[in-house]
Design brief:
323 residues; Glutamine Phosphoribosylpyrophosphate, subunit 1, domain 1; nine-stranded mixed sheet; binds aspartic acid
């Protein structure tokens, strides 16, 4: 996928910030009805997350709740509506991390878990592990009371047409997703801060369209696509292989800590220099322990929304900022 000049967005006094992926998102390609549905889902996720925090709840609970709402919405590449792998299966990745305790949970390649973010959360609560993959992760989720569904639950018509078209174009080659990128990715992620100053981050995805089955992206890799500590919380989206090799989410936190720079400067350096120079395409959201946020991406667009302490909401869809 082609890299574009990056865009940086900054704000302060934010309590919850989420993204709905990066990619080529043209306003003309989205009907007003669909745009409204995106907006509705993002606002719903923001307000439900905010309710938890304003009642004194923990940021990790707000992150899980917000991401569940986006996983249930078929417009995003997470949970229902996720992209197909080359074997025409849907394999989902998710991770969540509590910045205060450094506890993290993640699942990769699950095929039957309705809300992978909740399975990741259960790993924190009910297991001594951090990451579970494949059928073991599906099994763990089932044993721990997470809702299990048939693969057919995740499938939506647009995604099916997307994989069929791509496979025709690439003559069934499994290794071409980077040369024939999808028009819109749609991974979801969230960062939040609670009244006690605790940060949390979470990310959920179907991964990259036409990925080889068994491929794991950056999303469930702690430190790559998802990371939170006492200083900063980060959720990434884009071409996962680059985010893994640059340990992007952790590197943002490390830059802030070791160089004593603001979150926006660290995010800018990561996207505009490190990632872009390496040929990586994508974006991320980050929040520091004072509620300062930065959103940056080197694609044509990125969906994001945030809610401030005073309740004001900002939503960006197709680079149209709605306040
Ligand atoms: N980063 C995800 C992956 O590589 C995909 C995305 O964010 O769209 O699996």
């Amino acid at each position: 996928m082609q890299a574009f000049k990056s865009n940086i967005i900054e704000a302060n006094d934010v309590i919850l910030l989420l993204h709905g992926g990066v990619g080529r998102i043209h306003k003309e390609a989205i009907s007003p009805e669909t745009e409204h549905l995106y907006q509705e889902a993002i606002i719903h996720a923001l307000t439900e997350g905010q309710k938890i925090i304003s009642c004194g709840g923990k940021s990790i609970d707000a992150v899980e709740t917000a991401i569940r709402i986006l996983e249930d919405c078929p417009l995003f590449n997470a949970g229902k509506g996720a992209v197909y792998a080359n074997n025409e299966m849907i394999e989902l990745d998710a991770a969540i991390m509590d910045g205060k305790t450094l506890n993290a949970g993640s699942v990769a390649g699950v095929r039957t878990v309705k809300n992978p973010i909740s399975a990741a959360r259960k790993i924190i609560d009910n297991s001594p592990h951090v990451m579970l993959v494949g059928s073991g992760a599906d099994e763990f989720a089932k044993e721990n009371g997470i809702e299990i569904v048939d693969q057919s639950y995740f499938k939506v018509k647009d995604r099916w047409q997307q994989i069929i078209k791509l496979k025709e174009e690439t003559e069934n080659n499994t290794d071409l997703f980077s040369k024939h990128p999808p028009t819109k990715l749609g991974t979801v992620g969230c960062v939040a801060i609670d009244e006690g100053g605790g940060l949390a981050a979470g990310t959920s995805t179907g991964g990259m369209l036409n990925k080889k089955f068994g491929r794991v992206g950056d999303t469930p890799i702690i430190g790559a696509g998802t990371y939170a500590n006492k200083i900063c919380a980060v959720s990434c989206t884009g071409h996962g292989e680059y985010f893994i090799c640059h340990a992007v989410a952790h590197d943002i936190c490390a830059m802030i800590e070791y160089k004593s720079i603001p979150v926006s400067v660290a995010v800018k350096e990561m996207i505009e220099e490190k990632l872009t120079n390496a040929g990586g395409v994508g974006g991320l959201i980050a929040m520091d322990a004072n509620g300062n946020i930065a959103v940056n991406y080197n694609t044509e667009g990125m969906f994001y929304g945030f809610i401030k302490k005073d309740g004001t909401i900002t939503v960006n869809i197709c680079n149209m900022i709605i306040e």
